[in-house]
Design goal:
The protein is built from 27 helices and 14 strands. By secondary structure, it is of the alpha+beta class.
């Protein structure tokens, strides 16, 4: 299988619109369409859903064949795709004037990417080993490769299909650059190989089913994720053969961190095959042996960091009480736990630094401004690793701390500045291991979730509250079986000699049935040799210290797993919400917008959106501290005084509240959304806060001029226009060909 680089303006436009609507990584990323989007542009969502129902995954190949959006309907050869194509055509036509102006901004990035792909991926370097690893046969097919500047994320890659066959792939060359781009392209070509429809003897999918048969949800999920990991490990290995400094995408972009147990088994055996130390059949057999030793749930379910915290605090307690066995176990485990936490936080810091692509760096010192600009060239997690090597760990983490504490304040940086500062002290050997671990869990408790990107943090607050309250029973229910046994053994011995030492026997429901688990030796695979993934999570068996699970080992016995036939458990993602100042509550609030075209009288809803109303009142009256985006300094007086209605769309919205006048400004902070379940945009003249994505409300507001059901559930409605004269003023502003000045806002509260 070979590839040829192609280019399609219509595909570029479609992927850019899809990214604007459904695939920006967050409110911090650059956006080009003003939000809220018009009803016409929003039809793209419905078009995609219609296509997915008819054609499955991937985008129709005719999307790349059309020279203009208007040509799409002439290229449809499947009537099932026609309704969706009509919607997509309307949406692309509406969005084209804006997005076609934005796409040329990335032309140099695309040209550089084309050169990088050709340099890295000469066919003789990868085709034979890729086919050998996946067990496929090179059929001589040539796929179209589209290097696009904007694509929805994740994963920023995808397929083009026709008649159920893969005809091309696309990769976001703005996000993936250099060796990471080559890795992403190879990964997509590998998937295309497996999807080619040609299934020879030795095909990876066939081999995995043969060695790990079964049709239960967890068994199928295990094979799917394992296939993904093997493709990614293979791609990363082939790229490293060209660039020894390359850090594989499976590591830096997250698969390794989401599924550490499964990735550790795959990497341990598959890397030996790729290095030529063992044969492919031997590697697959060894993987299957390890993966069938426990239930598929053990490898597919996400790590529970609350179990790590419970193990750590209980072992510390026992060690302080003089338990030598617990002390030895903690001593052997602690370096690996530190390596795991440090590696995890390092990766997440790189991710969080990508939030500042929109930062206005002209108000900051040159070194910090350059750092922020450079960290957002491509995927920040990849760039962070390079900058940390080039600038040194200490200096890079210091700049990260300053970025979080400075321009990062607008996007939740105040929660991450102390995290970066703590990791810096640790890598500079200023924090002992135990203090570092305790600080990780303390910051998790105080600053929001440090581990939500890759782990299941749904019970973290409960465990950390229990630690603060010395609620030992709660800690015991979350600890691993080995730690529970160590605790109860010590408790029994202590009670014999000191009857009142720890009070009455624990009432933990797991105490009477906790089995004895032998202490794992220090050379246990995946512990001593796990390196960065070093908490022991990859190699530990169920029930052992640091395994990241509270269940007894028997729960993962593959022959009698009581949940083996259950649906796959979905990870509970905990989203950190932006910081909000102390709330001032009101019984009733009215406001008047004094404009060049007349006054607009508003009634606000403090009962339904208290934080939003308080924020609006504070900005309007100048009683809330705000940052002037024009100067970077603290503003004085009412934020809205002298601003413009910078956006005016007749029959849709008028929008204001941006001192920059571009639609990209804010007051220097964000507040959470307050989406009321019984409030919608079914009626016109609703007052709502604009945003750039979830929980990114700031200062901008808009007023609708017509029903807009496509906005329901995405924006906080906090008031409405109250009289007909005011409605007329809003309509006049919408029809104005130039920006309309908002002179001031007066507020009455009760």
């Amino acid at each position: 299988m070979k590839f040829r680089q192609k280019r399609s303006p219509t595909l570029d436009l479609a992927l850019a619109l899809q990214r604007e609507l459904t695939g920006r990584a967050g409110s911090w990323e650059l956006n080009f369409l003003p939000r809220p989007v018009t009803p016409e542009a929003d039809l793209f969502r419905a078009g995609l859903m219609s296509w997915a129902g008819a054609a499955g995954s991937g985008l129709p190949a005719f999307l790349a064949a059309a020279r203009r959006p208007e040509d799409l309907l002439t290229l449809v050869d499947d009537d099932r795709l026609r309704p969706g194509t009509e919607l997509v055509t309307t949406a692309l036509t509406a969005a084209a004037p804006t997005l076609t102006d934005a796409l040329p901004l990335f032309e140099e990035v695309r040209k550089q990417a084309a050169v990088e792909v050709n340099d890295f991926l000469a066919s003789d370097r990868y085709l034979a080993p890729l086919c050998a690893a996946l067990g496929t046969v090179d059929t001589g097919r040539t796929l179209d490769l589209h290097l696009v500047p904007l694509a929805p994320y994740p994963p920023a890659t995808g397929f083009l299909t026709a008649a159920g066959q893969v005809t091309g792939v696309y990769v976001d060359c703005r996000r993936f650059r250099g060796s990471t781009l080559a890795d992403a392209v190879l990964t997509m070509l590998g998937w295309a190989q497996l999807k080619s429809g040609n299934i020879p003897e030795g095909h990876l999918s066939t081999e995995l089913v043969r060695r790990m048969p079964g049709g239960t949800p967890y068994r199928r999920r295990l094979r799917v994720i394992l296939t993904k990991i093997l493709v990614e490990v293979t791609a990363g290995h082939l790229v490293r053969a060209v660039d020894s400094a390359h850090r594989p995408c499976a590591d830096v972009l997250g698969t390794k961190w989401r599924y550490p147990r499964l990735h550790a088994v795959a990497e341990r055996h598959w890397s030996r095959y790729l290095d030529g130390d063992i044969g492919r059949d031997e590697a697959l057999t060894a993987m299957a042996r390890d993966l069938t030793a426990h239930s598929p749930r053990w490898f597919v379910d996400h790590v529970d960091p609350s179990s790590l915290a419970a193990d750590f605090y209980l072992l510390e307690w026992l060690t302080a009480a003089g338990d030598r066995t617990a002390g030895a176990r903690l001593f052997r485990w602690l370096p690996h736990l530190c390596a795991e936490l440090a590696g995890h936080l390092d990766n997440v810091i790189g991710n969080e630094l990508g939030h500042y692509e929109r930062a206005r760096t002209q108000h900051h010192p040159p070194e910090l401004a350059d750092f922020i600009t450079e960290i957002n060239q491509g995927d920040s997690r990849v760039t962070w690793q390079r900058l940390r090597r080039e600038r040194g760990h200490g200096r890079a983490l210091q700049l990260a701390t300053e970025a979080f504490a400075g321009p990062g304040i607008e996007f939740g940086g105040e929660a991450w500045a102390p995290v970066a500062a703590m990791v810096r002290r640790y890598v500079l050997h200023e924090l002992p291991d135990r203090v570092f671990v305790d600080q990780c869990f303390t910051l998790e408790h105080n600053n929001g979730s440090l581990f939500d990107k890759y782990h299941d943090t749904s019970t973290m607050r409960e465990v950390l509250d229990a630690q603060a309250a010395t609620d030992l029973d709660t800690l015991l229910t979350h600890a691993s079986a080995e730690v529970r046994e160590l605790w109860h053994g010590h408790h029994r011995i202590s009670a014999q000699h000191h009857p009142v030492w720890l009070g009455p026997p624990s009432t933990s429901p797991t105490a009477p049935t906790a089995p004895t688990v032998p202490t794992a030796p220090s050379t246990e695979p995946g512990i001593a040799q796990s390196g960065r993934g070093g908490s022991g999570l990859p190699g530990n068996a169920p029930g052992t210290v640091g395994c990241g699970d509270r269940s007894d080992p028997g729960a993962y016995d593959p022959s009698r797993d009581p949940l083996g036939d259950s649906p796959v458990r979905v990870r509970q993602t905990v989203i950190r919400r932006p910081y909000s100042s102390s709330l001032r509550t009101y019984r009733a609030v009215t406001a008047v917008l004094h404009t060049e075209h007349g006054d607009i009288h508003l009634t606000l809803r403090p009962d339904e959106a208290p934080y939003t109303v308080d924020n609006f009142v504070g900005l309007a009256t100048g009683t809330r501290t705000w940052t002037d985006p024009l100067t970077g300094t603290t503003g004085e007086g009412g934020f809205y005084d002298g601003t413009d209605f910078h956006r005016r769309v007749p029959g849709f919205v008028v929008q204001g509240g941006d001192r920059l006048g571009t639609g990209h400004g804010s007051a220097g902070y964000r507040i959470p959304d307050e989406i009321h379940p019984e409030r919608d945009f079914a009626r016109p003249f609703q007052l709502a806060m604009a945003n750039l994505g979830r929980d990114s409300t700031g200062s901008q507001f808009f007023i609708t001029l017509a029903p807009a059901p496509h906005l329901d559930g995405h924006y906080t409605i906090f008031g409405e226009v109250t009289d007909a004269p005011s409605e007329n003023v809003v309509s006049e502003i919408a029809g104005s060909p130039t920006a309309v000045r908002l002179n001031r806002v007066t507020v009455s509260t009760a």
